[in-house]
Design brief:
alpha+beta, Phage tail protein beta-alpha-beta fold, Ribosomal Protein S8, Chain: A, domain 1, 3 domains, six-stranded antiparallel β-sheet, five-stranded antiparallel β-sheet, 8 helices, disordered N terminus, disordered C terminus
Length: 479
């Protein structure tokens, strides 16, 4: 064998032995101890190349990786050395298999960017976009497609994964609340100056729910219900004695629901107590159901109920030429009962209601100029409060006593109906000797029910629930 042949054979044998050794060593790089490593003012690429050659590593780097570095290390692993050299100088690296790639942070972020489409079932894409944009990196983008109600997110894999975990919780079906109001008006007699005389005994049976305002019971399942001795102040729900511990009926004042005629007072009723109260009201003379509106709203969204009439109120400006007031336009104003309700459902199934009742009425007219341009004068009472009830319970709003003049028209049949001449056969009486005015008491019953199923919500909004007996009171007076 010639000398040249022996040399080639030696080189080939050395390669066959060295390559497997270096590949195996690369897999165990973190276990390799470097006793001493020192470079002064050397380009970082040259340092990485030297380490790659010496320890058999596959290192690649981008064109933006550059800069002179000084390294002096002793007794550390190869992995620790690489991490220190790369990261301390503001670069990052990524291990993929047997290859170590060194880049700038900006390049690494762009290379890891992904794009994903998320279709939404319940949440609004535009609103969710604003929420999720806070999760994005500086290079990330998010777009909302309102037509398909979906969002498109472009960002790193980590951010995409985080958004994918957030969306199911943010895209849940928002619970709805069915708000049902009953406005009941009843006339008061001479002895009821501050409201209904609640000292009348009422009986209910079958209730296993805790006793709530305005009555308390003397037995758990059957008993007589009486008013509390002290009314709840406006804007609160009072505390009540335990079942069977209440004082006797004697000495009770007209406690619930009115303390004085000008205050709003609140109390709560569960279903059985509500039926007792309504039955009691139906037993009174001259009681009528003014309105029974229902409205469906989503959790944390305000619902408004208006019952009454709309007045057109003129707006005025002074005419600089004539110096007189003149009408410049008209604005609408609701007169009657207005109720704003904002429900908030808690995890335990309770409902916190933000209530804002307002009662307004027309009291007369005022002239801007004598004999001309009469404008209506209105008065109103309003209150704001928050109460917490269980699903299906009822809030009672009282304290709405008003006086009305009674006008009685008496006329002779047929003759009293003749135009103009009929006035000769007609007589008007304002009030009576005993009752020149009529006192009426307005009670507002607000029931809130949680609705989680859309078909059920639609059905309940249009129909009275089958499981709840409707209050069958006619709008005309009950004799």
């Amino acid at each position: 064998m010639s000398t040249r042949t022996k040399i080639y054979f030696f080189i080939l044998a050395a390669l066959l032995i060295t390559v497997p050794f270096k590949s195996a060593f690369a897999q165990e790089a973190d276990k390799q101890i470097i006793e001493s490593l020192e470079f002064r003012e050397v380009d970082i690429k040259d340092v990485l190349r030297q380490l790659s050659k010496q320890y058999g590593l596959n290192i690649v780097f981008s064109e933006k990786v550059s800069g002179l570095i000084t390294v002096q290390m002793n007794n550390l692993t190869l992995g620790e050395a690489l991490d220190s050299i790369i990261t301390v100088n503001g670069f990052v690296y990524n291990k993929r298999g047997a290859v170590i790639k060194v880049t700038t942070p900006e390049e690494a972020e762009k290379e890891g960017k992904q794009t994903k489409l998320f279709k939404l079932s319940n949440a609004d894409a535009s609103k969710l976009k604003d929420t999720l944009s806070k999760v994005l990196t500086s290079e990330g983008t998010i777009e909302a497609d309102n037509r398909s109600n979906s969002i498109v997110v472009s960002d790193s894999a980590a951010v995409i994964s985080k958004i994918a975990n957030l969306i199911p919780a943010l895209d849940e079906l928002t619970p709805q609340v069915l708000i049902e109001a009953k406005l009941i008006e009843t006339s008061l007699n001479n002895t009821e100056k501050l409201g209904i005389d609640w000292t009348t005994t009422m009986t209910a049976s079958g209730s296993k729910m805790p006793t709530t305002a305005p009555f308390k019971a003397n037995s758990a399942n059957r008993g007589d219900y009486y008013p509390t001795s002290t009314p709840s102040p406006s804007g609160t729900v009072g505390a009540f004695p335990a079942v069977g511990s209440g004082p006797p009926l004697a000495g009770f004042a007209n406690a619930f629901p009115y303390a004085v005629a000008t205050d709003f007072v609140l109390g709560t009723l569960d279903f059985s107590k509500l039926q007792v109260t309504l039955d009691f009201l139906k037993s009174r003379k001259r009681t009528k159901l003014v309105a029974n509106p229902r409205i469906l709203t989503v959790n944390n969204q305000k619902a408004t109920i208006n019952v009454g009439k709309v007045l057109s109120l003129p707006t005025y400006e002074r005419n600089d030429t004539t110096g007189k007031m003149q009408i410049t336009g008209w604005e609408k104003q609701n007169v009657g009962v207005s109720l704003e309700v904002t429900p908030q459902i808690s995890p335990d199934g309770h409902i916190k209601l933000k209530l804002k009742p307002e009662v307004s009425s027309l009291v007369g007219y005022a002239s801007v100029r004598e004999g001309v341009n009469e404008g209506p004068i209105t008065t109103s009472r309003t209150a704001e409060t928050e109460v917490q009830i269980r699903d299906g319970e009822t809030i009672v709003i009282g304290g709405l006593v008003k006086d009305e003049s009674l006008t009685t028209v008496k006329k002779i049949p047929i003759l009293g109906s003749i135009p103009i001449l009929g006035l000769l056969f007609t007589r008007k009486e304002i009030g009576t000797t005993e009752n020149p005015t009529e006192k009426t008491d307005l009670l507002i019953f607000v029931t809130a029910r949680i609705i989680k199923d859309r078909p059920v919500a639609t059905n309940l909004a249009e129909n009275v629930p089958v499981s709840k007996k409707p209050f069958k009171m006619r709008s005309r007076d009950i004799e």
